[in-house]
Amino acid sequence: MEALKIAMIGGGYVGLVSGACFSAFDTEVAVVEADPARLAALREGRIPIYEPGLTELVAEGVAKGSLSFGDDLKAAVQGADAVFIAVGTPTRRGDGHADLTYVYAAVEQVARCLNGYAVVVTKSTVPVGTGRRIAAIIEHVAPGLDVDVASNPEFLREGSAIADFMQPDRVVVGCATSRARDVLGRLYAPLITRAEQMIYTGVETAELIKYAANSFLAMKVTFINEMADLSEKLGANVMEVAHAIGLDARIGPRFLQPGPGFGGSCFPKDTLALVRIAQEAGAPSRLIEAVVAVNDARKASMSARVIAACGGSVRGATIAVLGLTFKPDTDDMRDSPSVPVVARLVEDGAHVRVHDPQGMDQARPLLPPDVTYCDSIEGALGGADALVVVTEWKAFRNLTPEAIRAAMAGNVVVDLRNIFDPAAMVAAGLRYYGIGTTPR
Ligand code: UGA
Asked: What global pTM score does this model have?
């Protein structure tokens, strides 16, 4: 059978990862990127985001001719079996809705350029009802055009995007015709090892599945964060609570790691969007409303833990902050809990020295100007009165309590990710404060 051809509109995170992954299976992928600087970088093999394995996968696709980057939308979509809309959907200012300006603009352009049957697929997370609206836009711009509209939400995580894409728990395709189903079924066939992995639904259902999945996971994280706070009050250990409840197959062990609150480009945006969608549909989600509020308050309150651990004031203290990104193995700083932590410590008069393996460039515009950026862990830690771990990078886990103690001038360690063994830290002479474990 002839190789499939797809156009990927948007060379951002999702477009790049999914485009590169599809190209690995000999699908012909044309990525359309409108930003000239980004396009130039992509054409030179420079990947503007940090994602393990992505640079190599893109290079392989380009070398064998199955992956290309350009700005000619018409050339990319004509003859394509499927056109993926993978442009950004930021949170709209003011009302918490996803901003679909870029999605609709891309759809209009696609409708003007298509000259034969194609499936127009949304891969960006879009509010329920967007597929229907897209179909209406296409009908308006190019009446009678032979297209199907489908929703194919993406579930990959930053930092493990390629493995998540290549070995999906499930692939969700929302569409109304068998023709669209056949195209997307063929496209994903190389990734599917069990028939149950492929789920076909209506368009609205697929759109809702994406929000439901992210909101549920955000709720799970928020739940364990509340149990962590409760554990501290009651003298219990949340790590043991999480382990024990996670062994119940109905609960499951993943996404039960307590921390400083969830961040990133997805959970904060998608929980907020679901809240708005549910309110407008007349079926408000009290649960997710609470998740949003609890998580916002949590992120804002993390600095208070540091200040309390430092004896009530950080004025004049040197504080090492390890980890800035919202999670490890990414350079993404969006909604990272590190931002309010660092801002408050600086505001309260601390000298803050930060280190992050990948996120320092992205962090600069978001953090106060008088933060010291250190190229190494040792550089940040040396002579510090207190250490705060905000992100659980592997390199930080490898630090021994003795090395931490020897490098620091003071002995306060606030571990917002519970990466260290509390007993070993205390034995090394450190005053250790984890999350959901009683301070010693
Ligand atoms: C999330 C989902 O996990 C993906 O399935 C989804 O495709 C993606 O959003 C998206 O919609 O694009 P991602 O934002 O990359 O992926 O990151 P996660 O690994 O889910 O972490 C989200 C946040 O929750 C991070 O701040 C992380 O530190 C926090 N988290 C996660 C915890 O605090 N504890 C946990 O146990 C798990």
From this structure: 0.93
